[in-house]
Amino acid sequence: MAKTPTNPKTFPTLHLETVLIRRVKGHVCGVDEAGRGPWAGPVSAAAVILNPDDLPPGIDDSKALTEKRRAVLETEIKARAIAWGVGFASVEEIDDLNILHATGLAMCRAIEALSVQPVAALVDGNYRFKLPCEIQTVVKGDSLSLSIAAASILAKTARDRLMIELDAEHPGYGFASHKGYNAPSHTEGLRTLGPCPAHRRSWAPIRALLADA
Q1: What distance in Å separates the CA atoms of residue 195 and residue 203, rounded to the nearest whole number?
Q2: Of the residues 17, 37, 96, 211, which has the fewest C-beta atoms closer than 10 A?
Q3: Three-state SS for 98?
Q4: How far apart are CA 204 and CA 81, in angstroms?
Q5: C-alpha separations of 100 from 48, 93, 107, 115, 127 in Å
Q6: Does residue 45 belong to any structural domain of this protein?
Q7: What is the pLDDT of residue 209?
Q8: What is the distance between the alpha carbons of residues 165 and 159, in angstroms, rounded to a whole number?
Q9: Within 13 Å of residue 137, how many CA atoms lie on the same side as its CB?
């Protein structure tokens, strides 16, 4: 029996950017976040305006890339893009505002950090954040839009570096390896040491530990 052919992997393109640029008559950035789900650390976001005449080869959704490949592409994106920006929302802001609004704050900061301000943004997902420009949401945008994919890489690499720094400040939790997500070493560190200032106190597992303390 013949095997059913598998669908070949598709890569993001500039199609969505091209259509939007024609309509708004100005620069369009891609926006994505990293770190909405972890128990610890800030949430990060990045905004990127790519140069269509100078695209780094191999841009893809950050989750589809190795750590080494993300690092290479981060350098290439920053060197070749028309503009790029990264923003964070702190643990305290996440606890005060909730993760959704904190993510929007990080996205605003990323766009405001751009050296060239866009007229519109392609934003990964389906939530319409209040950003300082027109937005178009794109479900699974990091696998469809090159600008969003580039932003996903910058948001991920920036947050990973910060979590490695937090690991040095707060040893024993394994932040450098799991980046604040749920993992056996993280759970063991919390059981042994209790929460540290890098933990999101509004998260249920952390809240429960604080209640038992």
Answers
A1: 11
A2: 211
A3: coil
A4: 40
A5: 21, 11, 11, 26, 9
A6: yes
A7: 83
A8: 10
A9: 9
Element spanning 84, H or E: strand 83-89
Number of domains the chain contains: 1
The residue among 143, 159, 193, 132 whose CA lies nearest residue 36 is: 159
**Residue 174 within any structural domain of the chain:** no
Q: Which residues are annotated as a binding site for a divalent metal cation?
A: 32-33, 124
Tens-digit pLDDT profile for residues 134-172: 999 999 999 999 999 999 999 999 999 999 999 999 999
Q: Which domain holds residue 86?
A: 15-168
- Domain membership of residue 98 (yes or no) is yes
> What separation in angstroms does the CA of 150 have from each of 35, 58, 76, 182, 213?
16, 10, 10, 26, 42
Question: Rounded distance, CA 28 to CA 147, Å?
Answer: 9
φ, ψ for residue 107 (rounded to 5)? -65, -40
Numbered residues of the known binding site: 32-33, 124
Average confidence score pLDDT of the chain: 94
Q: Is residue 35 part of a domain?
A: yes
- Give the CATH number of the domain where residue 164 resides: 3.30.420.10
DSSP state of 175: H
Give Cα separations from 173 to 70, 82, 200 (angstroms). 24, 38, 14
